[in-house]
């Protein structure tokens, strides 16, 4: 049943999010032998189609084509023919589901009418038994039927195992893809983290270099300022010594009276101007 469920086709309509788009039929055939007699029993579970009125379901395109094909040469009629005719002693039970919503009252009435008609159907249940000792041909046919049923059961089991394996493979593939995605995300996070760390490292290096350059520049400026002040002082001292020397040269002896020459006075004035500029 699990394998068959994987083959079920559903689609969304205007009144059902998972509407069955195909008759889902599970068939179980059983053979039992008692006192030389072989009894064949068959159980069929059928998921019949519901209301397919386009006005309610709003079906268009593919959904509309499916609705039109529901009762067109239906194989379901042939599969349930023996049970409905009573020729094989099969009992028939029908379960009806309803939608309590007021807007679907007309569909509910239609379904209840169908159920009432189905309830009045009279079935003459007459079980059919086959003797294992009637003829050699009947025995051979019975044995072949048993073998066919067994082979079908084995085939269904293999199909079920195949579906289970495919389902498991899908789960493993999904898990593997999820792990790969997680690994890719982790790798991206590690790369981004490495980028951030590298960026922070170089930014710290740049800040350190900027600080060092700033300190060096400040040191150079202070040194240049000190050197300029020292040069000014030395120049000032030089000019002052020159002035003193000139003054001593122009000073007359104690016994001599007179004034310094104009050239010396001009030179002294020039040196005094230079000293004033330096200050």
From TrEMBL:
Family membership: Belongs to the TRAFAC class myosin-kinesin ATPase superfamily. Kinesin family.
This protein's name: Kinesin-like protein
A biological process term (GO) from this entry: spindle elongation
Alphabetized PROSITE patterns for the sequence: KINESIN_MOTOR_2
Native species: Operophtera brumata (Winter moth)
Domain Kinesin motor: 1-71
Alphabetic keyword roster: ATP-binding, Coiled coil, Cytoplasm, Cytoskeleton, Nucleotide-binding
Subcellular compartments: Cytoplasm, Cytoskeleton
Keyword ATP-binding: yes
PANTHER family recorded: CHROMOSOME-ASSOCIATED KINESIN KIF4A-RELATED
Lineage, top ranks: Eukaryota, Metazoa, Ecdysozoa, Arthropoda, Hexapoda
A cellular component annotation (GO) from this entry: microtubule associated complex
């Amino acid at each position: 049943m699990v394998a068959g469920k994987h083959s079920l086709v559903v689609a969304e309509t205007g009144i059902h999010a998972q509407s069955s788009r195909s008759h889902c039929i599970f068939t179980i055939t059983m053979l039992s032998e008692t006192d030389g007699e072989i009894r064949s029993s068959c159980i069929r579970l059928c998921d019949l189609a519901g209301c397919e009125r386009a006005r309610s379901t709003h079906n268009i395109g593919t959904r509309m084509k499916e609705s039109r094909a529901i009762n067109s040469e239906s194989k379901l009629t042939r599969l349930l023919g023996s049970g409905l005719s009573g020729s094989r002693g099969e009992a028939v039970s029908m379960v009806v589901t309803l939608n309590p919503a007021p807007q679907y009252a007309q569909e509910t009435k239609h379904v209840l009418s169908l159920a009432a008609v189905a309830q009045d159907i009279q079935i003459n249940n007459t079980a059919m038994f086959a003797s294992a000792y009637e003829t050699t041909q009947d025995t051979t046919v019975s044995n072949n039927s048993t073998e066919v049923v067994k082979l079908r059961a084995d085939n269904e089991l293999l199909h079920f195992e195949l579906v289970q394996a495919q389902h498991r493979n899908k789960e493993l593939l999904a898990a593997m893809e999820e792990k790969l995605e997680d690994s890719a995300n982790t790798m991206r996070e590690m790369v981004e983290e490495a980028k951030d760390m590298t960026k922070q490292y170089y930014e710290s290096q740049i800040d350190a270099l900027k600080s060092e350059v700033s300190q060096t520049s400040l040191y150079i400026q202070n040194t240049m300022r000190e050197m300029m002040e020292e040069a000014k002082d030395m120049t000032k001292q030089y000019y002052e010594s020159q002035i003193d020397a000139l003054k001593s040269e122009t000073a007359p002896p104690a016994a001599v009276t007179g004034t310094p020459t104009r050239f010396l006075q001009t030179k002294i004035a020039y040196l005094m101007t230079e000293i004033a500029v330096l200050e």
